[in-house]
Amino acid sequence: xxNSQNRIFGLDVxxxxxxxxxxxxxxxxxxxxSNNFIVIVLELFGFWxxxxxxxxxxxxxxxxxxxxxxxxxFTLKAxxxxxKRRWFRxxxxxxxxxxxxxxxxxxxxxxxxNIGLYFVFLQNFxxxxxxxxxxxxxxxxxxxxxxxxxxxxxxxxxxxVKNKSKRFLIIVFLLLxxxxxxxxxxxxxxxxxxxxxxxxxxxxxxxxxIDAILVGVLTAWIRFxxxxxxxxxxELFLFLGIGIFFFLLFGISSSNLRIEQSPFFWNVLYxxxxxxxxxxxxxxxxxxKLSNSFLKNPIVFVSKISYAIYLIHYSIILQLMKxxxxxxxxxxxxxxxxxxxxxMITFLMAYILYRFYEKPMMxxxxxx
Length: 368
Hints:
By secondary structure, this protein is mainly alpha-helical. Helices cover about 75% and strands about 0% of the residues. It has 15 helices and no strands. The chain has helices at about 10-25, 35-70, 75-110, 115-120, 135-155, 165-190, 195-205, 205-225, 225-230, 235-255, 265-280, 280-285, 295-305, 305-325, 330-365. Helix 3 packs parallel to helix 14 (about 305-325). The longest helix has about 35 residues, at about 330-365. The chain is globular. The protein starts with 8 loop residues before the first helix and ends with a helix. The relative contact order is 0.14.
C-alpha cells in the first residue's frame, strides 16, 4: 500500500467507508436530538466506522508481520523496524493534533486533566478517558496493539512449535483469548445498566479492545494460508457479514437482548461479534483490484486523507465552528448550510494536513 500502483481498491473502499461513517455520526451534533431511525443508524455508523478501522488496521499490520515472521528470522531488529514504520505513520499527526487540541482547550477556557497521559496513550488504558480529545481513545488501542503483537511474536519465536505459520497462529489465538477474558472479568466485576456507561467503561478502554485488531490479524493469517478457500467463498463470507450486521441492527431488540436484560451478551459477545462481521467483508474487498473507474479517484483520495480527517474533524473543526456559531438557533436550512460548510472545511484541512505534513513524514520514514 505504499503507492498508488500497489493500492488495493477494495481496502480503500473500506477505509473511505469507515471515515465517512464516523463523520456522518458526528454531523448529528449540529442538529437537535431525535430518536428516528435514520438518526439511530447514523449514531451506529460512528461506532461501526471505528470498529471497521480496527479490523482493517489488524488486517494490514497482520499481513506485514506475518510475511516478515515466516520469511525471516524475526529478531528485535525486525520488531523495531516495524515499530519505526508504524510510529512514523501515526505519531506525527497525533502529536500535532494533540497539541492543537491543548491550545484550543486553553483558548475556550476548558480545563484538561491528566494531559500527560495523552502523550503516552494511557488516558484510557484501564479507566475511561476524560472528555478532552475523545477521538484519541481508538489511537491508544492501536498503539498498544502495535507494541504488543510484534513483541509477542518475537518472544514466541522461542516456543516449541517449529512451523512459523502455526506458531504465528497460536500466538495470535492466545492473545485473542486473553482479551476475550478481560471482557469476561469485566462482566463478572462491573455492573453496566445503560449504553452510555458501556460506551465509556468498556467499549473505549484499551485492555478490553485490542482483540478487535487481533481479529484483523487472524483474518490476514487465513488469507495467506487458505487462499483458494478465501477466494472461492468470498461472496458467502460477505453474505455472512451482512447477516451479522442485520442481526445487530434489527435482531437485538426483537430478541430482547437489551443491555439491561443481557449484560453478558453486551459486555462479552457484542464487540467480538462486530469485529467478526467486518472480518467477513475482507475476502471480497481484499480481492477487489480496480484499475479504472470514475469512483477510483474520489475513493482513493478519501482513503488517503482518512487519518487526517479522523483526527481533526470533531474536536478541532466542529468544536471551533460550534464555539463561534450557536447551531441551536439556526433554522433547518441554515443547519444544512452549516453542515456543508463544515464538511468542506474538514476535507480541505485534512488534505492540507496530509499533503504538507503526513505525507512528508511517511516519505522521511522510507528514506531512513
